[in-house]
What we know:
Layout: E1 2-5, E2 10-12, E3 15-18, H1 23-53, H2 55-63, H3 70-88, H4 99-102, H5 107-116, H6 119-156
Parallel strand pairs: 1-3
Antiparallel strand pairs: 2-3
Helix pairs in contact: 1-3, 1-5, 1-6, 3-6
Amino acid sequence: MGFCYGDSFKWHRDVVQLQTRDAGEKLAVSFAVAKSANLSIYEWRLDQAIQRNAHIPEDLAKSGELHLNRREINVEVGRLYLLNNAINLETSMLDCPEEFWEDDRFQPEYERSTKYLDVAARINLLNTRLNVLKDMQQILMDAAHNAHGEILFMIMGV
């Protein structure tokens, strides 16, 4: 990724052409690149969660059972919850940076940069994949509750 100066603002082959030498224009591009980099971290974390849980649907399909104990289920539910919280509550992925509230001269450059870097599409894909993991989280929670209910049932001797 690089930059140069030219007659108009544009992105081409990962090189941004800045129209001015104004720090505000550079800041607008920097915010977009930072948001894209931050998003890459969440994409990586989600990929790790998917890989970590890939065996669960396979186990269910093969044996009809989860080969996880209650503690392992609770740990994974907690991990998935933390990831969901980090992506959707702790960050401002969809928000425009506050700096543009006072001076919005270069907000169009910021928006063009986030569009070039596919930030909105990547956020949508991230949330779609996260929703699939949320469904799996619900299956894990149901399995943990059912297993606990079976134990209570055996203890009561009914």
